[in-house]
Amino acid sequence: MTAHGPAPHGPAPLARLAGMGGLLLLYPEHLRIERIGLFFAGLNILHHLEREMETTIPLRALTGVHFVRSLLLVQFLRFTYAGCPAPTGHYLRDAFAENAFLLSLADNRPLLAMMARIEAQVAALATPGHELSSR
């Protein structure tokens, strides 16, 4: 529930991470990537990135969560699921693909912590009779 009525996407997220690539939201049964902010808007204008502004990935469809690190400063999470875009090898382009999230060019410990939360939630969904995490 928000000050203006019910939350637009149902319950509040279990975890939220804001970064250069927008917002990464973990819900009990899905991930949501919202590509918002000045950095993304600037890249979009300068490089004509044609990317989805929002991506929702069901956790049951997720087959992998990968921490990608280039020789440069680009570090991001890439989510693998049936039908997701294949990596191109161009790190900046891959960092803004519909199945990726870029936090920052420096300290990515929060990104690794979010990766662990996502993997734990996927494991909880895969365990028969296990209730969804609400931590």
Could you please describe the fold and organization of this structure?
It is a single chain. With 135 residues, the chain is α+β, with helices and mostly antiparallel strands. A four-stranded antiparallel beta sheet has the order 1-2-3-4, with helices on one face. It contains three helices and seven strands; from the N terminus they run E-E-E-H-E-E-E-H-E-H. The chain has helices spanning 38-47, 91-95, 109-126, and strands spanning 15-19, 22-26, 30-34, 54-58, 62-69, 75-81, 100-102. Strand 1 and strand 2 form a beta hairpin. It has a single domain (18-126), classed as PH-domain like (Roll), CATH 2.30.29.
Reported for the largest beta sheet, the result is: 4 strands, antiparallel
- Spatially, the strands of the biggest sheet line up as 1-2-3-4
Shape type: globular
Q: Which whole number gives the mean pLDDT?
A: 82
Could you spell the SSE succession in H and E letters?
EEEHEEEHEH
Question: How many structurally independent domains?
Answer: 1
Strand content: 25-35%
The count of β-strands is: 7
Contiguous helical run count: 3
Low-confidence stretches: 1-6
Q: Indicate the structural class.
A: alpha+beta
Secondary structure layout:
Elements (H helix, E strand, L loop, with lengths): L14 E5 L2 E5 L3 E5 L3 H10 L6 E5 L3 E8 L5 E7 L9 H5 L4 E3 L6 H18 L9
Antiparallel strand pairs: 1-2, 2-3, 3-4, 5-6, 6-7
Question: Could you provide a short overview of the structure?
Answer:
The chain is an alpha+beta fold. The protein is 24% helix and 28% strand. It has one domain: PH-domain like.
